[in-house]
């Protein structure tokens, strides 16, 4: 073999241990994979000089290598270059698991929070289905059933302000975990105490307390980790989990009850929350092991991507009682209640909650008794409003974000969305409450359409807390949600009382909701605002 033949073959390796013992080995061509993060290595000029050793056509073991100017040579990468290439090719072909591994931290956080909200509403709606066989077993009338269902909202109302304050102090992640554990354990003990009314009411109050801190925790996470242009979608994903949870709860509760008994639905749904906590805790530990920085809440700081991120200081977990009291005093409560925008949010939240909670609790019974549907049919029909809400949410969120991205005033966008959320259900409830001789499927279609369109509130009212103040968003939601929980206490029980007194679904369920929807629209259009509020001089607004 001659030197010219060697130069013609690009894939020869010259391996030798001495001057007179050359060893040539021909290898198949190696496929080259362009790597985006390094300059591509190009072929180098190789000159092989004849040696002074003998042998027919012998070669010297010395090989002179010259890099082409401007091209990265082997001298820069060293002998490990080929090994690095092999490792990177293997890494490129290796499938990532879990599939969300490459997502930004804020998206993982939002996804996990949304899953918690799915379980949240599954544990909320399970009683609206189980209340039917429970009432038959224990001989409850509508007033007693309304009392049992409304007891959830006693705890829900009590935990709103503490939940917002704790989320601001300790971070939404920790508060959310504690909330899920609380409501899951309280759900699981319902069958044990169902025959003892005070115990049953107390268990549902504990469920309400656990679920009551979750919206404030989620709002704190969104306000600190999501930019304005993505906020509507983030809120929609997280709070949209409630609608998905309603769908799953209403779908799975009837067959579970019919096959395993009504007690089993509380055991199974409670177990789901415990499993979520274990998975969320392990995911958090893995994230703490990363070097990339984690989205925790506490002292806020600006991350490299320009978003507001935060890190809980180690001292915050050892805060003394005096520190907690001082942090509570630092909240500008007076400034909140001097703002017309805050009052508009409070009343709008009350009005929206009246229609939402009363329908969520009483529609399965309405479909069962008024439309003569059995338990499974009533549950399946009750799935339609939250299912429609999921569809509308997927439309409303990008609609609002796109308007804001295109320069439309944020306040105007929030007013448009909230008006749709209020006027739509009011209109369809009017059509459902008037005796027009409509067949049952048309009434179902009206109620489904109206309640589904009310999900525009996720791009209206529920974004306004973050819009006007990132720092106090969780506390503001705690304030409005406290008032918004009152319809759960008063409205659900009042609906049962009016139903026993008047035997009219129109008067007991629809008329009060229509009134609050329309008055809420008027107040929102007059006083709502998404302009950042200077509640505290220490709060940076941008």
Automatic annotation (TrEMBL):
CDD domains noted in UniProt: MFS_SLC17A9_like (cd17380)
Family annotation (PROSITE patterns): MFS
InterPro entries per record: MFS, MFS_dom, MFS_Na/Anion_cotransporter, MFS_trans_sf, SLC17A9-like
Stored Gene3D superfamilies: MFS general substrate transporter like domains
Recorded family membership: Belongs to the major facilitator superfamily. Sodium/anion cotransporter (TC 2.A.1.14) family.
Function: Probable anion transporter.
Protein name: Major facilitator superfamily (MFS) profile domain-containing protein
């Amino acid at each position: 073999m001659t030197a010219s033949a060697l130069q013609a073959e690009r894939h020869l390796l010259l391996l030798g241990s001495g001057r007179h013992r050359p060893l040539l080995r021909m290898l198949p061509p190696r496929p080259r994979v362009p790597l985006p993060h390094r300059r591509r290595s190009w072929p180098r000029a190789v000159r092989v000089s004849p040696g002074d050793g003998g042998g027919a056509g012998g070669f010297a073991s010395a090989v002179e290598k010259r890099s082409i100017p401007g091209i990265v040579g082997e001298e820069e990468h060293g002998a490990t270059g080929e090994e690095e290439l092999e490792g990177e090719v293997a890494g490129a072909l290796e499938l990532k698991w879990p599939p969300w591994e490459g997502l930004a931290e804020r998206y993982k956080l939002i996804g996990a929070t949304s899953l918690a909200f799915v379980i949240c509403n599954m544990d909320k709606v399970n009683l609206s289905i189980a209340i039917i066989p429970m009432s038959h077993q224990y001989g409850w009338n509508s007033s007693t059933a309304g009392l049992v269902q409304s007891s959830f909202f006693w705890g829900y109302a009590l935990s709103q302000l503490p939940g917002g304050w704790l989320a601001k102090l300790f971070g939404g992640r920790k508060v959310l975990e504690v909330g899920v554990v609380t409501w899951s354990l309280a759900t699981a003990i319902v069958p044990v105490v169902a025959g003892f009314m005070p115990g049953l009411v107390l268990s549902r109050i504990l469920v309400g307390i656990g679920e009551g801190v979750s919206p404030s925790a989620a709002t704190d996470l969104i306000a600190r980790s999501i930019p304005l242009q993505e906020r509507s979608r983030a809120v929609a994903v997280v709070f949209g989990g409630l609608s998905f949870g309603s769908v799953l709860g209403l779908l799975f509760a009837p067959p579970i009850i019919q096959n395993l008994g009504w007690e089993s639905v509380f055991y199974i749904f409670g177990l789901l929350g415990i499993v979520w906590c274990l998975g969320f805790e392990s995911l958090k530990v893995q994230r703490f092991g990363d070097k990339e920085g984690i989205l925790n809440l506490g002292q806020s700081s600006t991350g490299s991507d320009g978003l507001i991120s935060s890190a809980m200081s180690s001292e915050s977990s050892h805060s003394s009682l005096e520190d907690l009291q001082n942090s509570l005093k630092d909240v500008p409560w007076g400034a909140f209640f001097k703002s017309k925008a805050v009052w508009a949010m409070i009343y709008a939240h009350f009005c929206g909650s009246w229609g939402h909670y009363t329908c969520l609790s009483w529609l399965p019974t309405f479909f069962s008794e008024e439309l003569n549907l059995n338990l499974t049919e009533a549950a399946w029909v009750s799935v339609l409003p939250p299912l429609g809400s999921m569809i509308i949410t997927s439309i409303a969120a990008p609609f609002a974000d796109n308007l804001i991205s295109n320069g439309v005033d944020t306040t105007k966008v929030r007013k448009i969305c909230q008006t749709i959320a209020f006027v739509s259900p009011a209109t369809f409830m009017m059509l459902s409450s008037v005796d027009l001789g409509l067949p049952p499927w048309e009434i179902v279609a009206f109620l489904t359409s109206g309640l589904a369109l009310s999900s525009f509130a996720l791009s209206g009212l529920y974004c306004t807390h973050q819009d006007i103040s990132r720092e106090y968003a969780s506390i503001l939601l705690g304030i409005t949600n406290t008032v918004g929980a009152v319809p759960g206490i008063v409205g659900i029980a009042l609906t049962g009382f009016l139903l026993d007194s008047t035997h009219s679904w129109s008067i007991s369920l629809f008329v009060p909701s229509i009134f609050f929807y329309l008055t809420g629209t008027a107040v929102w259009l007059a006083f709502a605002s998404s302009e950042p509020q200077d509640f505290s001089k220490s709060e940076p607004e941008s």
